[in-house]
Design goal:
The structure is a homodimer of 141-residue chains.
Chain A: H1 10-13, E1 19-20, H2 26-36, E2 40-44, E3 50-55, H3 56-64, E4 79-80, E5 87-88, H4 93-103, E6 107-113, E7 119-126, H5 127-138
Chain lengths: 141, 141
């Protein structure tokens, strides 16, 4: 049955990525997280290339500490390449399931690998996208 | 294809619930969240009956405020019945998918409904359980 997940490409399912810059303060980043109602933000450079990933868990850990969240840039706490796991639009939802389970993450950035090997952020794909796909399939849509 | 999800009962898939008491401080609750590496805690009374649910998102919002996390009890910030969505062990993984999508939550407490109508917390079921089930099915296990 999960073979059917091979029929669905990441590019057709993906959600809009919510991106910030490395110098954005932790406080402003958390505000963005709530306003956009997402669990993970992607940090990009001026070209939209992936530099980092920061999750609700990272933010909570930082908020527990004594740092001034208004002054600390998100670049200090984000996960950087090559520790970031991602998918491309051509991969399938089965690839997403495998990568999410293997790396124990809630979501993956969707990227286009450019000629210069930089990763252009073009989306995000989450466990919610997966659940919604299953729901739609169950309803025969 | 999602019909196969009807074959799997919540009781066979569920994870161990991580529970705290209503008077536990927000700070100690967050420490438990990290130590157990979960996204949601369940608040129970002395009989193990469900009283509340508190998520990483609730904690992050509280941590941003000016409250003393060591003094504030988790009961102040938790979601209470009847606003809590749950499943029973006899329901299926398709029921889980439907409820998770409908209520936009990451996980659901698994409960047994007692004769006195109280809800005994016996597990938790998450989007991760769902992804792992799909992975196992894809590997033919």
């Amino acid at each position: 049955m999960p073979e059917v997940l091979n029929r669905f490409k990441v590019g057709d399912i993906k959600s809009r990525p919510i991106v910030i810059r490395e110098h954005t303060s932790v406080y402003d980043s958390i505000v963005t997280l709530f306003l956009e109602d997402v669990g993970t933000l992607y940090v990009v450079d001026e070209n939209g290339y992936l530099q980092g990933v920061v999750s609700r868990k990272d933010f909570l850990k930082t908020a527990l500490g004594s740092a001034d969240l208004h002054k600390m840039p998100v670049g200090v706490i984000m996960t950087r390449m090559p520790q970031i796991h991602f998918v491309t639009e051509e991969e399938t939802m089965l690839d997403v399931v495998k990568r999410i389970c293997e790396h124990e993450v809630d979501s993956l950035p969707v990227v286009r690998i450019e000629d210069n090997q930089n990763l252009k952020v073009v989306g995000r794909i989450t466990k919610t996208n997966l659940a919604q796909l299953l729901l739609e399939l169950s309803e025969g849509r």
